[in-house]
């Protein structure tokens, strides 16, 4: 969902975008439970009678289609997590209930309807490899795509190290970018939010970026990315920006000073090497980019930031 007055036609549409973003935030925090139209519409301050039509118009999917897709994609993420030394691999029944399906048979039926085969026979690694090739074609020029190849488990050519940190509750003003692999989409949103924050004296706060979808699972055109800045507790977002509160959390933090290829290797190392041996598991919160200074201060080719992966004991 992209907050853009130029694209959506003024303040009234911005209010609609903000409300639908609230609905999406509500859904993503409750994927393991029932999500009725009336309840989601109430979270967005819409009448249930018209909400489904508004949601489809702004998101490009019906509410039910969106919920089913993100539940199945969450299931794929859980299916693809490597087994750590202190945590058994979840069963498909565990995954089904954890992603909000009424039963394992309901999960199997929905999964086969979307991916063409039963979850027990699905090759998650091959699927992730195809998805990575897909977003690589979009994210990098042909001569640089090889740099985004997945880092094998156990490899750490960059000498990455992670440290554990406890972060307090964070209140964030954000702009959401849908189809976030479009050239310039995220940087344009960041520029708008910096201008928004400057007008309110908030531009020197901690800047964050986070993607709600795993691009190795979700089709690139469906990936959503938020550009955000921490704001004081109780701050009421206004204008283009939405508002979201993240709970206190423990994160594995890793410093990055380089380009997209380095960041992707860091994520591969965190998930493929550090995490399985750590005794921790990832939580349902997104992995954060905590910028040193303002976002894209060094352009789109060089990043100085800290990756913050929310984790809990396995």
Describe the structure.
- This protein is α+β, with helices and mostly antiparallel strands and 314 residues long.
- Among the domains are: 5-60; 163-313, Alpha-Beta Barrel (Multidrug-efflux Transporter 1 Regulator Bmrr, Chain A).
- 41% of the residues lie in helices and 19% in strands.
- It contains 10 helices and 9 strands.
- Strands 1, 2, 3, 4, 5, 6, 7, 8 and 9 form a 9-stranded antiparallel sheet that branches.
- Helix 6 (92-98) crosses helix 7.
- It starts with a helix and ends with a strand.
List keywords for this structure.
nine-stranded antiparallel sheet, Multidrug-efflux Transporter 1 Regulator Bmrr, Chain A, 41% helix, single chain, 314 residues, alpha+beta
């Amino acid at each position: 969902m992209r907050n853009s007055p130029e694209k959506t036609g003024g303040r009234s549409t911005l209010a609609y975008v903000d409300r639908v973003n609230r609905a999406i935030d509500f859904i993503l925090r409750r994927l393991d439970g029932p999500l009725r139209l009336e309840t989601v519409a109430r979270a967005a301050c819409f009448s249930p009678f018209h909400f489904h039509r508004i949601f489809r118009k702004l998101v490009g999917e019906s509410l039910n289609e969106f919920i089913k897709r993100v539940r199945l994609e969450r299931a794929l993420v859980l299916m693809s997590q490597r087994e750590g030394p202190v945590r058994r691999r979840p069963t498909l029944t565990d995954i089904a209930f954890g992603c909000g399906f009424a039963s394992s048979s309901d999960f199997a039926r929905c999964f086969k309807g979307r991916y063409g085969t039963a979850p027990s026979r699905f090759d998650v690694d091959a699927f992730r490899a195809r998805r990575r090739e897909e977003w690589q074609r979009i994210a990098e020029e042909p001569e640089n795509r090889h740099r985004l190849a997945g880092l094998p488990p156990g490899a750490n050519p960059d000498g990455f190290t992670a440290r554990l940190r406890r972060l307090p509750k964070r209140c964030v003003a954000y702009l959401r970018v849908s189809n976030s692999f479009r050239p310039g989409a995220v940087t344009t949103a960041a520029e708008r939010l910096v201008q928004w924050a400057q007008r309110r004296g908030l531009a020197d706060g901690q800047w964050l970026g986070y993607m709600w979808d795993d691009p190795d699972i979700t089709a690139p055109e469906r990936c959503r990315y938020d550009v955000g800045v921490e704001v004081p507790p109780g701050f009421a977002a206004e204008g283009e920006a939405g508002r979201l509160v993240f709970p206190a959390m423990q994160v594995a933090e890793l410093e990055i000073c380089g380009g997209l290829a380095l960041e992707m290797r860091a994520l591969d190392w965190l998930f493929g090497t550090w995490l399985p041996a750590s005794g921790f598991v990832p939580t349902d919160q997104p992995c954060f980019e905590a910028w040193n200074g303002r976002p894209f201060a060094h352009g789109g080719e060089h990043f100085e930031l800290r990756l913050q992966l929310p984790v809990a004991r396995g």
